[in-house]
UniProtKB/TrEMBL annotation, chains A, B:
Family in the record: Belongs to the NtaA/SnaA/DszA monooxygenase family.
GO molecular function: monooxygenase activity; oxidoreductase activity, acting on paired donors, with incorporation or reduction of molecular oxygen
Taxonomic source organism: Novosphingobium resinovorum
Binding positions (FMN): D59, T96, Y150, S221
Classification of source organism: Bacteria, Pseudomonadati, Pseudomonadota, Alphaproteobacteria, Sphingomonadales
Keywords recorded for this protein, A-Z: Flavoprotein, FMN, Monooxygenase, Oxidoreductase
Basic and acidic residues bias locations: 448-458
Listed name of the protein: Monooxygenase
Length: 458, 458
């Protein structure tokens, strides 16, 4: 296989995102950007003009009056991406959808529908939801525990991919001469009965031009990494340094190979903020200014709660040692992240105030400088085996424009990044193979084995 | 309130629909129309150019190899309508979504999202699903019984509308001077705990320009009629004659008034096929030809099974009396419809073959003739109190064009139908009031009462 080029995704949550509570104050951004379809279309068309691989939509399902602005009011990923599908032509459409609070049949069907509507550009970012409050919106007294969340996720992906194999590629002759619409031998029920799910199938949708939506994954715990290594086509992560990135990529590759996959089967795509200035110093000044404007200490204190099930840290003495007992609140939330924060505070004997400050400072981007500096750094990470591409976190429009107009042309001139789309599908542009047709598949996975003896439904 | 004008909706399932198994054979229609977004956009833009109120998407969740073509492979309504939202500007977007197999929080959120994306054009056709096979796709051993299906539906609508009232109209000042994004006193949790659902809320989406999506309903059983009369803004029905239509409208009005609603609160919109010819005789010839081409006796026999949970009637002697014992299979399906078929056969001692033939013949449209004849008949029904508008079932493209180009101008010239949209929202065009802001509401409904004491979530 020829060397892949660098992949680029755009992560947008309207105006703002983690650490960007005040982004809506910027007069260059509509204050209602998170529910403004025109704004989304404008940003995504810019990314498409620059030949980005995909736009990536994050999600959440629970709010309180204390939630950050970008949580309070946001378009649902599936409806948003479907609306973007008819306003774009080549860019991939990746939505965050939780395995904890959607039925697998509906999710499989809606993603397959988006995939057909977009001509093979759909992607699914698989999450298990780290917000315990969301459970109450779905009839649960409390959120699933960690083992259950991931047990469900593994089985869930298996079910969804099984449903996506309901029809073989050539199931619909639609031959007007012979009057044959469907070849019934090419329709397969799933008849899945597992620990968590029971789904008969088949799905009432043909395969898309890319075979199946592309699977993204973002969890960073041990189970999360296994889920990504075993099932995902691409992983959305965070890397503070080239060494971090390389270690993460090696860890995922090791887990993927151990699961019988190829070393190149999983793309590693860290999410990054990028700051471009006239000079390196100018860029650092811009970063400092934007980050200072983006959120206050109070807001950072609030956002600290996210990994701890949105536990309210305002109740503690800011100048007392970090309250490590709060880790208990993270049990059904982002426990791995919370654990790292508690460790960090313990190691250096930090107060709560210091912990918030250190975490804010650690958000500093490794990609800050003149266009030349940023391009060089991206290429160094890419060629150094620390990433396969970047998920560019949409910042200030002016900065996004500078990245597109100044950095991207350098990446293209160096032959690292495309100047034209190679394909019309997301899978094709990412350089991923189209999943084999059901009949051509070796019975390698449990799902494939389960499907082999299944007869066409009667 | 001034007299409303006639409302028009377009019902489309790609190529084909009930009784239209062979529509895909027509060379003027793409054979893959049911999954062809370009075809949908083309039809819906035609309807929008003719100032139709809405496009209406039907749905189903279960197939076998014997399912009619339009069931086998179809885009999911929410994703399809979201894709149509950005390809249109004024037409309403009404999707069929079942209360039996969606969680109310996800459904409320996705419809609210579509409503915002489209600028206030979303509608929800509430169904409880009459296909027992669908249950197996959602982890159930069998479908809910009739009482449970409707018990859930009543509570479900209450929950969804409650979630749609999470924010007051002016909850988001987004004031850059004062830095106030949200007025937290205008965010309300739902805290619903009912017989079937437990949903805390609030929903993470602001109200749309039309306040809430418009509620459509289509069930025709006793509980179905009550559900429509008590909760719906519009009812999709079938009427064979002006007398039928008038009786249905009076029945719904009576039930609505008994539930404390106004006599004009529920629009009655029968679904109709329309055949336009150069003369009345020419139109009757066209109808006969199309109906003959649309399905064979074998296909009509298969479709008879729909009301009986897709029971296979091919196993019975065609020339023996209609097998009335099959009614048992309709218990968790469209029981009222099945009951009517059994009654029909019993009354006239029909064989199975005769029953299929009589049912096929009864599909004859009351709106067949020259453009003048069809327009006159529509006006007669409208002014005679038998309908508030029509759901035009998309037939052959040539016939749709004739309706748009020949019949609609007559309706406009007679002042019965609009020449320009009155509003940008579906609710506005249908002449329905915008649901009151939460604070302005009298605590009339159980939901409103439940919400009054609810505090802003903490």
């Amino acid at each position: 296989m020829t060397r892949r080029t660098l992949k680029l995704g755009l992560v947008t949550m309207g105006a703002g995102g983690p650490g960007q509570h005040n982004r809506w104050l910027d007069p260059d951004i509509p204050a209602d950007a998170s529910v403004n379809i025109r704004w989304y279309i404008e940003q995504v068309r810019k990314a498409e003009a620059a030949k980005f691989d995909f736009v990536f939509i994050v999600d959440s399902q629970f709010i309180t009056k204390d939630s950050p602005p970008h949580y309070l009011n946001r378009l649902e990923p599936l409806t948003l991406l479907s609306a973007l599908a008819t306003a774009t032509s080549h860019i991939g459409l990746v939505g965050t959808l939780t395995t904890s609070f959607n039925s697998p049949f509906n999710l499989a069907r809606r993603l397959a529908s988006l995939d057909l509507i977009s001509g093979g550009r759909a992607g699914w970012n698989v999450v298990t939801s780290g917000d315990p409050g969301a459970a109450g919106n779905f009839g649960l007294d409390e959120h699933y525990d960690y083992e259950t969340r991931y047990g469900r996720a593994f089985e869930y992906i298996d079910v969804v991919q099984g449903l996506w194999r309901s029809y073989e590629d050539d199931a619909f002759p639609r031959d007007r001469e012979t009057g044959v619409f469907l070849d019934p031998a090419k329709l397969h029920a799933l008849n899945h009965k597992g620990k968590y799910f029971s789904v008969t199938g088949p799905l009432n949708l043909q395969r898309s031009p890319q075979g199946q939506p592309v699977i993204f994954q973002a969890g960073d715990s041990d189970h999360g990494r296994n889920l990504g290594a075993q099932t995902a086509d691409a992983i959305f992560t965070h890397s503070a340094s080239i060494e971090d990135g390389r270690a993460f990529k090696q860890d995922i590759t090791r887990r993927a190979v151990a699961a019988g996959r190829g070393a190149d089967d999983v793309l590693i795509l860290p999410g990054v903020s990028i700051y471009v200035g006239d000079t390196d110093e100018d860029a650092r000044r811009i970063e400092t200014e934007y980050r200072r404007a983006d959120h206050s200490f109070e807001q950072a204190l609030g956002e600290l709660g996210r990994s701890f099930g949105w536990h309210d840290f305002r109740q503690y003495d800011l100048d007392a040692p970090f309250p490590a007992e709060t880790l208990e609140h993270a049990r059904r939330s982002f426990f791995t992240q919370a654990q790292r924060i508690v460790e960090l505070a313990r190691k250096d004997d930090l107060t709560l105030r210091q912990t918030v400050e250190v975490l804010s400072a650690s958000r500093g981007s490794p990609f800050v400088g003149s266009a030349e500096t940023v391009a060089n750094e991206i290429i160094r990470w890419f060629e150094g085996g620390a990433l396969d591409g970047l998920n560019v976190m949409l910042g200030h429009p002016d900065q996004f424009d500078r990245f597109l107009n100044e950095v991207v042309p350098i990446l293209q001139a160096r032959g690292v990044y495309r100047s034209e789309y190679e394909d019309t599908t997301l899978r094709g542009n990412l350089g991923l193979p189209k999943p084999a047709n059901i009949r051509a598949e070796a019975p390698a996975s449990p799902t494939a084995r389960r499907e082999e003896p299944a007869l066409a439904v009667s």
